[in-house]
Amino acid sequence: MDFNNTRYIPMSRRRRIYEGKGKVLYEGPEPGTLIQHFKDDATAFNAKKHQIIEGKGVLNNRISEYIFQHLNDIGVPTHFIKRLNMREQLIREVEIVPLEVVVRNVAAGSLSQRLGIEEGTQLPRSIIEFYYKNDQLGDPMVSEEHITAFGWATPQEIDDIMALAIRVNDFLSGLFLGVGIRLVDFKMECGRLYENEMMRIVVADEISPDSCRLWDIKSNEKMDKDRFRRDLGGLLEAYTEVAKRLGILIDNERPAGSGPVLVKS
Ligand SMILES: Nc1ncnc2c1ncn2[C@@H]1O[C@H](COP(=O)(O)OP(=O)(O)OP(=O)(O)O)[C@@H](O)[C@H]1O
Ligand SMILES: [Mg+2]
Fold this sequence. Notes:
The protein is an alpha+beta fold. Helix content is 26%, strand content 31%. The mean pLDDT is 93. Bound molecules: adenosine-5'-triphosphate (ATP) and magnesium ion. Adenosine-5'-triphosphate binds at residues 18, 20-23, 25, 34, 79, 91-94, 96, 133, 135, 189, 191, 204-205. Belongs to the SAICAR synthetase family. Pfam families: SAICAR_synt. This is Phosphoribosylaminoimidazole-succinocarboxamide synthase.
């Protein structure tokens, strides 16, 4: 398939497959493809907290593109094909494994709360956790026993998912360390990609400051969605800084719709 010739489909004529809290999925230009559209909605605590942060979708689209393209380049299979515009990317349609896979390097958030480990404590080794994707239940944590017993994934698929999670964690940790950011933890989703009678597990959804905990190495300042969860303010500025450090945005580039632009009189 030649994805460089993706024809432009006007928004109004596209078939909307799914609208989630942060993204919309549209039918793609070829069978087996989708268009992933990043919205500006920020949600937390199972959508009990909700706010529009203008420009967030643009930044997440760019940051997620950067990460997924690099994962593809180092041979970690993902759903990502290419970015189409400011808010959209072309992806392969997968059968999402109904799990949120969380990898933790440093104690924070629910791990700190549940186990009484002070935030910021380096963990003895990286820890992988699974949560069952179910908004009604509040995405409960589950074990491999639950996953196999209820048929959400097979033991082989769990092995594949854990191997992918470790590779993604190693790549992201190094990537962020190189730009002065500590990767505390992140969430990823996986899917089954069917290609000529074959099935393999690939990384899907997004990886962005919405789904990672990123702390500045020197100041420990939070550069991720905790700024919204904890009402710290400055979310857009923090995401912009992440993008700049990764070399995605040139210094004075602004994401479209990020607020009023100063005009010299
Ligand atoms: N390549 C893909 N093929 C099919 N579905 C995908 C793919 N990548 C991501 N998805 C799914 O698309 C949806 C993206 O929307 P969004 O992240 O806004 O959902 P959400 O509100 O967070 O809900 P969810 O709990 O399902 O993640 C998610 O349900 C995600 O699992
Ligand atoms: Mg989601």
